[in-house]
Amino acid sequence: MSPENGLSRESAVRAQEAIVRALTEELNRLDPESPAAASLRVQLVEEAGRLAFRIASTQPPPMSEAIACVADPSPTSRHRPRVLIVEDDDGTRTALAGWLTEKYEVITARDGQEGFSLATTSAPDLILTDLWMPRVDGMAMVRRLRRVEALHAVPVIFLTGQAERERDRLGISAVAVACLPKPIDLDTLEQALRKALPEYHRPSVLG
Fold this sequence. Notes:
The structure is a single chain. The chain has helices at residues 9-29, 35-56, 90-100, 112-122, 138-145, 163-170, 186-196, 203-206; strands spanning 82-86, 105-109, 126-130, 156-160, 178-181. It is α/β, with parallel strands linked by helices. It folds into two domains: 9-56; 75-206, Rossmann fold.
């Protein structure tokens, strides 16, 4: 395999992936309305485009949409599973992230549009999302993600104030592994996470 800037193409992909993830994490720490966040979003789009090119130059995964998506062929090679939390309520999102950080690698988004973007650049192992959000709601986000080959099998857990009624009316069970009511019971959420990610909850993985 021909080298690229002194790196194999696979190594170049991994290096570019690290850049995209670092930028995503930095963006999550900034005020979304700040000039710094706006500038970083532009940079993130550029770096994600470079990542897509590097992936395409090796062995591109089939995708139903032309989206740069970070492939992770062996998720359990990471010590902790990566969970994407998509929630428009700041307090709920912060509380969930704080609780999950002990056992999971957490990334957060404020709505379905931002969640879709982060999912395609960070390759989460599970998505925990509110159902009703501004701009793009949880159901619309998940249906769009199901058209992305690399993400179509990622387990999804919905959070909603009226779980039973919404699950039946919207057909949530067809696209999600669970639909949990708000306010969130942490024991119930933990059980749902363990069921959705059994490969991570063996003693040798999470202890």
